[in-house]
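Schema walk-through. Below, the input block comes first and the output block second. Nothing else is stored per chain. Lengths vary across the set, and this one has 642 residues.
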Amino acid sequence: MKWRNAFFSLLTWGVLGVLLLGQTDQRSYPPGQDWTNYVRIGAYGLRGGDAEQIVSKAQASDVFGIEVDNDIEGRYESFVHPEEKLKAIRDVAEAAHKAGNYAFVYIAGTECITAHAAQTPHTLAKEHPDWLQRDINGKPALFGGGTAFWIRPGDEDVWVSPYAPEWRKIYMEHVRQIATTGIDGIYIDIPYWMTHFEGWENTWASFDDYTVAAFKNQTGLDAKHDLKLGDFSDPAFRKWVTFRIQTFTDFLSDISRNAKSVNPKIKIIPEIYPGIESEAVRVGADVYSLYAVVDAIAHEYEFGEGSHMASERTPLDWFRYQVGMHSFRAFAQGPAGEDKATWILNYSWDGDKKVDAREAMMNLAMSQVMVGANFWDAPGHSMAGSNDLPTRKKIFSWIEAHEKTFYLPRSPVDPIGVYFSPETRNFYADQFISSYRGILILMMQKHLEFQVVTPRSLADFHGQTLVLPEVRVLGEDEKRELQDFVSPGKKLVITGADATGIADAANVARFSDDPGVAYEKELEKDFERASPDSQQAFLNVLEGSRTVKIKAGPHIATSIARSSDGHINCFFANFTGLIGGSNPIQTPQTGVEVSIVSKSEGKGFFLPFLGDVQPVASTHEGDSLTFHLPTITKGAVFWYEP
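--- output ---
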């Protein structure tokens, strides 16, 4: 991970990673879900002999998910001799289960550190130099203290090629050994190509012998000589990009197979900091691809140029953050109603004297639960601890009391689809993301129901309108499914580039001047004065929801969904008045209305963030019910029970 645990350097073994659930888990879960969908995460260091203490601390702050670390793979000493750490994992799993909890343990992906490297001949780089990732000139991915804040002076930090056969054999053996301890999950951090330390960003590594041979075997190309590195117009380089992403998708799939071969119920949860933007392509860890092969993903999401601290975020940062999380939730949906969990490991506050840590924590939690993601409380750049334990307990207790409202499976009501094209993002990241984000923010600010549609869900999309934002690359299956979509007369809206091959028709609208790109530029120039109405020509062609209408200010981000209990839900995240680094307190919003087409009177309910449920009266006009909501401060959810 990019931001490691602050106390990491204080522990002999760099201990960090087990998740425990905070109550006896004797309930059943909705189809497609399990315990990972309902966690409330806190982290603790596992040193050995402290399992009971960890569980007790977790229970005291209402944590429904404790992450602790005794990283076998990421420390060379335990990579060679894992026995002591395996015992500690077994102990904490037993303690967790006695308390009715679940537990998962942290391991590194491809990074490995040897402590006090100069004082021992037994380091990974000294004993296995052929395992290391390398740049195209043969320079090894070998670093020392100060390269990153979690690498102590005198330590050796290396990044291993996932194609190194001996290393991978030992790694997977450890995975199976961990799975046999009874632990409920394995949490894999930093499964990346080394392209994120200073000087390595544009290397497109790795060019070690094992990786080059694997690429040659798959494509017939010599990675060292046949590629124009960084040139996305080069077909050979595109194959390299695709190969690098597939490598880590296969690596996580291999971990899952090995772990579940000895413990079928164990969960595999990678931690990934790139989200939907170009960083995913550079490091090779693409969450769209990974959701298909793992059980949940913990996102250390920094959304490109945005601030990773909640206390520093501007309203535009918050809206972009919502775009990323809505995308993750779409990626997490699988066949037959499968609903994989989305955990968010982000940071609220790091000593900002102008911002109250408690307010920053609440803003972060609110923004996450409204999209159905799980909140992980962590201080500063660390994974363990809290900026304010009483506030964490307050947030977690409230989430626990209302977990079904936020975490029951959600399905669309009558959405406008916005297409996420993984291949377009891979090869045209900047153009695609600008259009995609601009259009989704436009939808949120106009309070239109939207659904992120992907190649995995395209055939099952049932909305009346689908928007393709700067989609430049489409496979034959996608083209066929798009043709099937428009054939009955449904509307296809193509902005910017057009790769569909679909003929002009009354139900096919094309915008050569991309409204998503134009609106994002408008937001960047002056967020406060930007108006979604500036894109009225685009909005006019959309076939929006006939079932739910929302009236609210443009600085409230909304989303609409039907929960598996049959309720229609409207989620509100209020970012009005926030000033990054200065003011974390929203301007309360009044006059918000929700109108629902319904043949029955039904009932409306309002739940403010950290507040209590209250009924909302309605007025009836024709076949529409209108609910006038109470004041929205940080955020809220309204639901309608037919």
